[in-house]
Write a structure and sequence with these properties.
The complex is a heterodimer of chains A (490) and B (479).
Chain A: H1 2-21, H2 25-49, E1 59-68, E2 73-80, H3 81-100, H4 109-128, H5 132-141, H6 143-153, H7 158-191, H8 198-201, H9 208-225, H10 234-241, H11 244-269, H12 271-297, H13 302-321, H14 326-357, H15 373-386, H16 393-408, H17 410-434, H18 450-468, H19 471-476, H20 479-483, H21 485-489
Antiparallel strand pairs in A: 1-2
Helix pairs in contact in A: 1-2, 1-4, 2-3, 2-4, 3-4, 3-11, 3-14, 4-5, 4-6, 4-11, 5-7, 6-7, 7-9, 7-10, 9-11, 10-11, 10-13, 11-12, 11-13, 11-14, 12-13, 12-17, 13-14, 13-16, 13-17, 14-15, 14-16, 14-18, 15-17, 15-18, 16-17, 16-18
Chain B: H1 3-8, H2 10-27, H3 32-53, E1 59-61, E2 65-67, H4 69-95, H5 101-119, H6 123-141, H7 150-179, H8 184-190, H9 198-215, H10 224-230, H11 233-258, H12 264-285, H13 291-312, H14 315-342, H15 358-361, H16 363-377, H17 383-397, H18 401-426, H19 441-463, H20 466-476
Antiparallel strand pairs in B: 1-2
Helix pairs in contact in B: 2-3, 2-5, 3-4, 4-5, 4-11, 4-14, 4-19, 4-20, 5-6, 5-11, 6-7, 6-11, 7-9, 7-10, 9-11, 10-11, 10-13, 11-13, 11-14, 12-13, 12-18, 13-14, 13-17, 13-18, 14-16, 14-17, 14-19, 16-18, 16-19, 17-19
């Protein structure tokens, strides 16, 4: 029940923001901040309560009530370590998203926070829903407010970006809906029980031809979200045009839902089909790593640059997932967290630069270190994190993924490591162009304010902490190895 | 005819009496308000009567009618739509100087025609119902005859509807020639040999032309955009809901009775029509600058989706079609309600620019229209999503993969133009558009309230459809 409450709190908080926002933007901001913080506190309590697994099952909480009984739909929410980690990330980034739009959003603030909170509600719903109908429902709920965020508060090309984002994701999710329905009916025909319940559906067996098509539906939806290379087209536009908090949520959370979907649904539901396509998935992952890195290197728009690094980093996730090795899976979860933090931080920084300089073009920046040493320091930290330097969380993640992949396919592992070198290239180029070099911006630029310092500090502390002591995360998601691996290695 | 049979026709008799009452009221020079209120009460009486006779169903009234749960559901939907259309009409016609009183006679007669279609199981009642509906619509469409486009729309509808009636009669005659009977069950009996005779198939084909015309399916869709644009907005809402529900009900009844799904040729024909409607409707709507025309093209697509559920020929399919029609009618009524409230005496609010920044100027109306558009686009939290979901699920159950893939891909195209309007709604208004204050406060606010209720119903159906689904199911068991 507490999981449902988390979502309800966000939804209600969103409505309240909208109502209060008509009085004053300040009320809306504070309501939003309090709402997300309340959820963060709840999630932390849960984390503290359930720091060890209950016996023989990886599920801490499992709650189910009827929703539409005639169709076998229930409000089934459950939480395991994997979901827990992602929920914590969601609320953490949620707080930062509210904080970083504190001064950026001046128009229609109430409606803005409404959309922000509803996106968060959809995302947390996705991470806890254990009913495929509910999952699809939440999957869509996070989409519309995000679309509104981009189209209302985005930059100059926001309409184009928002349409593209919406159409790409919606095309994928409708195909996924077909797959969900196919699973539903096949399960119903086999057992006589028509239900969308995840745990029931796990028992379905599929013929290999059908399984392939069902998997195609799921994979298209998830790889569009992830994004995998041929489907990544929406991402640079959406990321660069969205307001700062929008980019933060997109990069930090929405992309993770794709990876989450593959790990939670595709692998356990369709293990044989997943094994069958693993080589191709890894190939596309590796292509993504290198292609994303090259494109990032050639961008001049700072937000597009960061967006392409996401393509590259998500390539690691895809490769890691489909290597089916335990250590790579741990790396994947780490990558999901650390990419959320590091890329999120870079987007926040891009937002701050945009607020000060009113441009995203890195050729118009340069030598900013002299006026903003604090931000420069943070920028170095997070570009280094993004390039996978030791001490920082991303290093652990990428190392684990490469290690895991190496045992399966040496060539892919080697090629993926090339991506690390390339990431140093684009990272250094970014630093060089923005903070070093000749001073281009002559008017005085103010350094980080206390609020911004707070955001950066929170992000820096967590990324360093994850780099130095990743064991708690690895322990929490350890159960993936005994729920997933046996299925895949049979 | 026994007493019980008469009783089961009670709602339809009340409906017929309604138009007579309006005629009398006009003879006694009653005001528009009185007629409107009386009409409203009469429609409520019809609903009550339907509720009253519900327990005696199903009842056969040979040879013309069958009153069963399915018919009751469709009639209920029709009456519900007319209730809202009637409410919208008051404000709309009061703003314009033309005398609106006869309008209500025509409206109720057309409704009667639609309602008769839902219970007919005989070619005669089928034809009478359809003609009653069409003839009233000719006049309704061109009612504001001094306005632009009105006469054009009326003429277009008249010529094409007359032609489609001719097709219908020809088809009926061919089937009669083959089977020697005009009742649906009789035809079904004659066809049990399983021989699909060319005459029967050709006759059905000709009837499909007529029904396809009424439903606005491709390739019989040429009238739809002009008529939607040229008619007064409440009449457009009426055509989009009542007239189509009636035509669809009779198609469903005919198909169920004669087992149309057992003829591969018919399946092919309907599949082709469905695919063509989904593709053409969505593609043609893409560049429309007029909201009413856009809704016209989107309705082509929506009836294409509906045909996918119809093609399954299963119980789940029937349930899906009824839920779909319910969701679709509520959605369209809400959308047209907003159009009516924003229209002024001289100008129809149908250009998309009229809606720029609506959500900031008129938050409530803006939200209602947004919800309606999301519902049309089939986005969760609205009834439209659940309706589409049920259509998809009926299709998946029967493994109609090609149709489903087309449905999915075309609805992505469809999303584009819905999003286009939604983004216009949310855009910043660059020029203040003056909207008239309420001239008839009581009706203005009751319309307003009705729209809020409709939008609420859309969300409620989208989140908690359980009760309605149960209701539909229990009615369908009344066969």
């Amino acid at each position: 029940m507490i999981l449902l409450w988390m979502i309800i709190v966000l939804l209600a908080g969103g409505l309240l923001c909208w109502l209060l926002g008509r009085q004053s933007a300040g009320y809306a901001r504070w309501t939003a901040l309090l709402t997300v913080s309340a959820d963060m506190v709840l999630a932390c309590c849960l984390c503290w309560l359930y720091h060890e697994f209950p016996d023989k099952s990886s599920w801490f909480i499992n709650y189910q009530i009827n929703w539409i009984p005639s169709m076998g739909v229930s409000l089934h929410v459950a939480l395991d370590g994997f979901g827990m980690v992602l929920l914590l990330l969601t609320f953490f980034l949620g707080i930062l998203a509210v904080l970083c739009s504190w001064n950026e959003i001046r128009e229609r603030a109430g409606f803005y926070y409404f959309n922000l909170l509803w996106t968060l509600a959809g995302i947390s719903g996705v991470f806890v829903a254990m009913d495929l109908f509910l999952f699809y429902f939440c999957w869509e709920v996070m989409l519309i407010p995000m679309y509104l965020l981009i189209i209302l508060w985005g930059d100059s090309r926001r309409r184009y970006a928002a349409y593209k984002f919406f159409l790409f994701t919606q095309a994928g999710s409708l195909l996924m809906l077909l797959s969900i329905l196919a699973v539903y009916f096949i399960h119903g025909q086999q057992t006589g029980l028509y239900t969308f319940d995840y745990f029931e559906l796990l028992r379905t067996t599929f013929q290999s031809g059908t399984a392939w098509w069902i998997m195609a539906g799921f994979m298209i939806a998830f790889t569009i979200k992830l994004p995998m290379v041929p489907f990544h087209n929406w991402l640079p536009d959406a990321h660069s045009e969205a307001p700062t908090a929008g980019s933060l949520l997109l990069a930090g959370l929405l992309l993770k839902t794709g990876a989450y979907g593959i790990i939670r649904f595709v692998l356990p539901l369709l293990p044989e089909a997943s094994v069958a396509i693993s080589w191709w998935a890894m190939l596309f992952g590796v292509i993504g790593i290198i292609y994303g890195a090259f494109l990032a290197f050639s961008q001049t728009d700072i937000k597009r640059l960061i967006a392409y690094t996401s393509v590259s980093h998500m390539g690691f996730v895809l490769t890691g997932i489909f290597s089916f090795s335990e250590i790579a899976m741990q790396g994947v979860v780490m990558q999901m967290l650390t990419h959320g933090l590091s890329t999120g931080a870079l987007f926040v920084m891009a937002g701050m630069l945009k607020e000060r300089l009113h441009t995203r073009d890195i050729t118009k920046m340069g030598g900013l270190w002299t006026s903003m040493p604090a931000m420069g320091g943070a920028a170095i930290l997070f570009t280094m994190a993004s390039s996978g330097l030791p001490l920082l969380g991303n290093f652990i993640a990428e190392l684990f993924i490469l290690l895991g992949t190496f045992t399966v396919n040496v060539l892919f592992s080697v090629l993926a490591s090339v991506g690390l070198v390339l990431s140093a290239l684009y990272g250094l180029r970014l630093l060089q162009r923005v903070f070093m070099g000749a001073i281009v911006v002559t008017n005085p630029v103010r350094d980080l304010s206390t609020r911004e310092m707070l955001i950066m500090a929170a992000l820096s502390v967590s990324i360093v902490a994850l780099g130095l002591y990743p064991q708690p995360v690895i322990d929490t998601v350890h159960h993936l190895s005994f729920t997933l691996q046996p299925l895949l290695h049979e | 005819m026994s007493e019980l049979q008469l009783l089961s026709l009670l709602p339809f008799m009340v409906l017929a009496v309604a138009s007579l009452v309006v005629i009398l009221l006009i003879a006694f020079r009653a005001s528009h308000t009185v007629i409107q209120v009386t009409g409203f009460i009469m429609m409520c009486l019809v609903v009550l009567a339907t509720w009253y006779v519900k327990d005696t169903l199903p009842r056969l009234v040979p040879p013309l009618f069958i009153v069963d749960g399915q018919a009751a559901l469709f009639t209920g939907l029709i009456i519900f739509s007319v209730l809202v259309v009637g409410l919208l009409s008051y404000i709309y016609f009061e703003e314009r100087e033309e005398n609106p009183k006869e309008y209500y006679i025509l409206l109720f007669l057309a409704t009667l025609g639609g309602a008769i279609l839902t219970i007919s199981q005989h070619f005669i009642s089928f034809f009478i119902g359809l003609e009653l509906l069409s003839v009233s619509l000719y006049a309704l469409i061109a009612y504001l005859r001094t306005r632009n486009h009105a006469v054009e729309a009326g003429m277009k509808y008249l010529v094409l509807a007359a032609m489609s009636s001719a097709f219908l009669l020809f088809g009926m005659a061919l089937i009669y020639m083959e089977t020697g009977t005009m009742t649906f069950p009789g035809i079904a009996e004659k066809l049990t040999d399983g021989i699909s005779s060319p005459l029967f198939l050709f006759g059905t084909g000709a009837m499909i032309v007529a029904i396809g015309f009424k439903l606005g399916l491709v390739p019989f869709h040429l009238w739809i955009a002009d008529v939607y644009q040229g008619s007064p907005s409440p009449v457009t809402a009426f055509i989009a809901t009542t007239s189509k529900i009636g035509a669809f009900a009779v198609l469903l009844r005919f198909a169920q009775t004669v087992n149309l799904h057992e003829y591969p040729l018919m399946i092919t024909v309907f599949s082709v029509i469905a695919v063509a409607s989904m593709v053409m409707g969505n593609v043609l709507a893409l560049r429309q600058q007029n909201l009413k025309r856009l809704l016209a093209y989107s309705s082509i697509a929506h009836f294409g989706y509906l045909l996918v559920a119809f093609l399954t020929g299963s119980k789940a399919g029937t349930e899906a079609t009824i839920f779909y029609l319910a969701a679709y009618s509520i959605t369209l009524l809400a959308a047209f309600g907003v159009i009516v409230l924003l229209s002024t005496g001289d100008e129809e609010a149908d250009r998309i620019e009229n809606y720029q920044g609506l959500i900031w100027r008129k938050p409530v109306l803006g939200t209602i229209l947004t919800v309606a558009l999301f519902s049309l686009a089939g986005i969760p939290l609205t009834a439209g999503f659940l309706a589409k979901f049920m259509v998809l699920s009926a299709g998946v159950q029967q493994s109609q993969w090609p149709l489903l893939i087309v449905l999915v891909l075309t609805s992505v195209i469809g999303l584009y133009y819905y999003l286009r309007i939604i983004s216009t709604l949310f855009a910043t208004a660059d020029r203040p558009v003056n909207i008239p204050g309420p001239r008839h406060p009581f009706f203005y606010f009751s319309t307003y309230a009705a729209l809020v209720v409709l939008a609420g119903a859309l969300c409620w159906l989208g989140v908690f459809p359980g009760m309605v689904l149960q209701g539909i199911r229990s009615f369908l068991l009344l066969h």
